[in-house]
Amino acid sequence: MAAARSHPARERARSSRANAEVSPGEFGPDATREVDPRRIGPVRMSYSPQSDGAPDPGEVVWTWVPFEENDGRGKDRPVLVVAVESAGTCLAVQLTSKDHDGEGDFVSVGAGGWDGEHRPSWVNLDRVIRVHEGGMRRESTALSREPFERVTDRLRQRYGWR
Which of 51, 62, 108, 131 is the most exposed place for a label (fewest CB within 10 A)? Predict the structure, then answer.
């Protein structure tokens, strides 16, 4: 019987996953998850950013966000907190610097301190993310009120939130 041969590329991938740093929000009880925005019940959104280290509506925070394929992969990225839930978790929508100007499911929020290159950003209304305070890597910056209200107006229209 022949000995099983190791495949070098597979071994490197396995080794790099084992040695990779785990991002806050990636695993465990504080894992960041996509939620169905039509099934989470009443959502009350209000602009209330405070520079206190806790995620507040109107702030951009960083957390691990699962890829849309929901296959266990994801990456650390900025999200806009739009509401705080009674359990202490937050509802957020992800930001992207990929140009989505004129696309229906995206809202332009301009540039800000969440992006080191200060590129214009868009919020993806299709994906609502639940963030735990322990799953947040860092508080980045507050979005100004006007773009926050553009986002929340569209979320109200789309999902019937308050």
Answer: 51
pLDDT digits (tens, 9 = 90+) for 96-127: 998 877 767 899 999 998 888 999 999 999 99
Angle (CA) 161 135 141, round 5°: 70
Looking from the CA of 140 toward its CB, the CA atoms found within 13 Å total 25
Question: Whole-model pTM?
Answer: 0.83
pLDDT digits (tens, 9 = 90+) for 50-78: 988 788 999 999 999 988 776 677 888 99
Lookup: tokens for 97: 């610097």
> Contact 80/108 with Cβ under 8 angstroms?
no
Q: Please tell me the distance from the alpha carbon of residue 96 to that of residue 161, in angstroms, as a whole number.
A: 23
Distance between CA atoms of residues 54 and 145, nearest Å: 18
Q: How far apart are the first and last CA of the chain?
A: 67
Q: Is 160 exposed, middle or buried (0-12, 13-18, 19+ CB in 10 A)?
A: exposed
